[in-house]
Amino acid sequence: MTISMHAASVPVFKQLLGALGDVLAKAEAHAAEKKIASDALLQARLFPDMFPLTRQVQIACDFAKGVSARLAGADVPVYEDKETTFEELRGLVAKTIAFIDSLDAKQFDGSEIREITLRPGTPKERKIAGQAYLLSYGLPQFFFHLTTAYALLRHNGVEIGKKDYMGAF
Fold it and tell me: What is the distance between the alpha carbons of residues 60 and 152, in angstroms, rounded to a whole number?
């Protein structure tokens, strides 16, 4: 039995982005309850050379929408990545889920062999088949930034656990 590219991507992105939105709400409530400035969490890093929480969330959303769009043969929407509050980050997550929901499963048909071009027109341009793109690049990148966002919040005292990370499935 085979699994469709849509089934291997869209439900995963939606489940974990939904969980991310919930985790961000818990982080905002935690900051308010503990009288911590929101920026202390939004700009948190595990090490100085890492992106802060805000950027981790933006990049996770970028991968979810970008991978989904490319596999569906659709244009990748451009978001400005100007979010500075928990509310704005939750809005970004919701906007990303809405975009992914707008793609029809049939658009993904044949995408396992569709050639995906990464960084077109740059010295780092790379062409890769859709299945390898999803499984070896897109999903790992998405999980990396999602997990880092979770770890930043957990490290800073937000009471979240694996159930929060996983969300409803």
Answer: 14
Segment 16-62, tens digit of pLDDT: 999 999 999 999 999 999 999 999 999 999 999 999 999 999 999 99
Q: Which residues sit opposite 118 in a β-bridge?
A: 126
Locate 167 and state its tokens. Answer: 């969300």
State whether residue 19 is helix, strand or coil. helix
Question: Can you tell me the distance from the alpha carbon of 85 to that of 105, in angstroms, rounded to the nearest whole number?
Answer: 33
- Note the pLDDT tens digit of each residue in 110-168: 999 999 998 889 999 999 999 999 999 999 999 999 999 999 999 999 999 999 999 98
Rounded distance between C-alpha atoms, residue 83 and residue 21, angstroms:
14
Q: Which domains does the chain have, with CATH numbers?
A: 5-166 (1.20.120.450)
3-state helix, strand, coil in the chain (%, to 5): 65, 5, 35
